[in-house]
Known about the structure:
heterodimer, A: alpha+beta, Arc Repressor Mutant, subunit A, Beta-Lactamase, two-stranded antiparallel sheet, 10 helices, about 45% helix, disordered C terminus, B: alpha+beta, Nucleotidyltransferase, domain 5, seven-stranded mixed β-sheet, six-stranded mixed β-sheet, 16 helices, about 20% strand, globular
Amino acid sequence: MARSIQSLERAAAVLRLLAGGERRLGLSDMASALGLAKGTTHGLIRTLQQEGFVEQDGNTGKYTLGAELLRLGNSYLDVHELRARALVWTDDLARSSGESVYLGVLHQQGVLIVHHVFRPDDSRQVLEVGAMQPLHSTALGKVLCAYDPVAHSEAFDEARGAFTDRTVTGAEQFESVLEATRARGWASDVEETWEGLASVAAPVHDRRRMPVGAVGITGAVERVCEEADTLRPRVVAAVRDCARAVSRDLGSGLSAPARA
Amino acid sequence: MSDTHSTGPFIAAIDQGTTSSRCIVFDQDGRIVSVDQKEHEQILPKPGWVEHDAAEIWTNVQLVVSGALDKAGITRSDVRALGITNQRETTLLWDKATGQPVHNALVWQDTRTDALCRELGRNVGQDRFRRETGLPLASYFAGPKIRWLLDNVDGLRERAERGELLFGTMDSWVIWNLTGGVDGGVHVTDVTNASRTMLMNLQTMEWDPKICASMGVPMEVLPEIRSSAEVYGEARGELAGVPVASALGDQQAALFGQTCYSPGEAKSTYGTGTFLLMNTGEEAVNSYNGLLTTVGYRIGNQKPVYALEGSIAVTGSLVQWMRDQMGLINSAAEIETLASSVEDNGGAYFVPAFSGLFAPYWRSDARGVIAGLTRYVTKAHLARAVLEATAWQTREIVDAMQKDSRVELSSVRVDGGMTSNNLLMQTISDFLDAPVVRPLVAETTCLGAAYAAGLAVGFWPDTDALRANWKRAAEWTPRLDVETREREYNNWLKAVQRTMGWIEEEN
Lengths: 260, 507
């Protein structure tokens, strides 16, 4: 049997002491219950406190279980919550970019569109909420694969079909696309899924810096790209601004640098 | 927001709302440049009583105006005009000489005038003033609230009759203070706010002396009634020199911001409760189906435009009830997740008549009902029934509007927090059998006030230019077959019948 780690066992014992009902304990009570020195116990509690698993009452100085423990069991971000938080920012992105905006999350082997804002030109458009897009060829999918290990493994387990001449299907080439995505913080799709259309997308993170979705725009190549298929810097900046704003709204990056 | 908006000039709009005051700066395309917001205290002296400290509100209004200008990085010289929108009906009396409120403002939700309203109905009932004012005698409206203050606060009636006091809804209070207060402040209100006092005649757009006398309100306290879009005066202080150029009650401002400028165009704002307003053009349409007749807006010297209004008391608050009282969901957004996990309502119908049925029934003896329960029904079916309740009530109001106005509704423009609920929006479209359209800027209330102010100073040339600014962000089109819709509607109506008569007459 593998050797167990003593400090983890002790941390588990602290959590068990506090578990159940509205239990509050002071440092000395906990130390004596655990049979440990006060200093050792304090070190354990401080670490658990930093991780949010234990909280200290400001008035009494006693300790209780932290809110983070509850969140662990219930950590899945509801996609409708994500849409509600993203609404104003994606509206703003549609207005500033003049293109349609999509918010996507990983679902099974693809990208599920959970929010769609029409291109603001009064043309007839159909709401695409609920539609699925491929992981390996779209900007939203590439962002998810680059940041979410589950999406990454889904994309590599599945056959990556070619939709146009430009679709990247080889494992090595795809991996280098994802590396480039992580390095610059956004992904693109220039006619790799649909002829004539180009997309840009960036990741949305939650308060624990977990990648929970991707937000991006899709439009005609000639509007979204400059010559030589380069994405317009203004469009890229607008998409990244939006992704950061939604992430901030979800509580992410409170100490992250301000947007460029 | 993002930094790609155009450079000035700009229009600033103040939204003096029920829970907070906000200021939003808009550019010429109607895009939001900056927002600032500050909540104020809800004072609850007794069950059913709700008051605001008007001095706190004025302080907050000044703070959010400077806050919004700071965030936009602009000064007063970049602001071409200032517009006002406000919580409707909330009633204040203040001292003309000192500028001090003589009592907290009585908020629209405050029900202390219930008994007074019954008394004012005399042998006629709640429709005693409906022909002139378009409103039933109900505790929301300002006239009876003025009367209550004059009757119940020592010395106020004498001071009012000596001409020492001024009355205003929040638009009047903010404009009077903005334009100098005791030092030459203008005492005005706009037609939309005046139409919620029960003291204005809808045909003449003037205070009705007979009703003022019946209500016991001395006309000395009343502000001058002006249009919704004209320069009332110039601001002093922080915004010195900026024209104060619009005032609209919040729901009318949303109608204006949604650019519902033609008869038959309607907007519905989905929040805690829901407010539907339909433009009926230059005709004040009498309602025989429990709706309110109100002024939609009036631009300068043009003819006033009227509207029919219907409200649903419990919509977003039903979702909150599912979260807080029932514990079936953890956040409001989760109602959609739960409801989407089933195909239909499983036979269950939820009529949230928590404090009686409102338009078009007006039955105070009704209470909430969940009908059609079998062992098959799960919490997911109930979640679906919750969303369907909002959609059916929308349908009932739209039906009433079509009956009263004989105008067919082509589509409904939606705004408010619940528009992020995709399933709800689709369900409303299905039940109405009409497209539901969400505009790109969700802040239609502030936008409406900004539009009206911009029109008054020529920042925008006409309403056509404003229509061009309106952009469709999403549209839901009906997918439900007619048989299912009619069968379901029939079931809903049966459930509604079962709410009635629950409270037995107490005498």
